[in-house]
């Protein structure tokens, strides 16, 4: 509660001045940097973000791939970065017809969030 409740995020992304990512916890920034700002030869997290407050640098050879875990659907072979996304795909999408109909056009979507995004992009005056 000290870091989060009622406070603005205090840790910002150090990897790029153009990146606007901010987090209420150091671990969130560390994870963000590792996932979204990987560099093939050197990956460095500034010392002030490291949990033990020492420099954290790891060298990787150009042949070392920074692979993230992948989850694939056993029915259609679609690959997802997150296990939760695979679960949503299997429950709502795989082998099923779109069930959400746009009230303004023939567009149909398999997830409600996709339909909401469609309506806000294609029919902005309908709200």
UniProtKB/TrEMBL annotation:
InterPro entries registered for this protein in UniProt: ZnF_C2H2-type_TF, Znf_C2H2_sf, Znf_C2H2_type
Subcellular location: Nucleus
Gene Ontology annotations for the cellular component aspect, listed alphabetically: nucleus
Record's keyword terms, sorted: Metal-binding, Nucleus, Repeat, Zinc, Zinc-finger
Major place of residence: nucleus
An MF annotation (GO) of this entry: zinc ion binding
Residue ranges crossing the lipid bilayer per the database entry: none
SUPFAM superfamilies: beta-beta-alpha zinc fingers
Domain of life: Eukaryota
Domain C2H2-type: 71-98
Signal peptide annotation: none
Protein name: C2H2-type domain-containing protein
Organism this protein belongs to: Megalurothrips usitatus (bean blossom thrips)
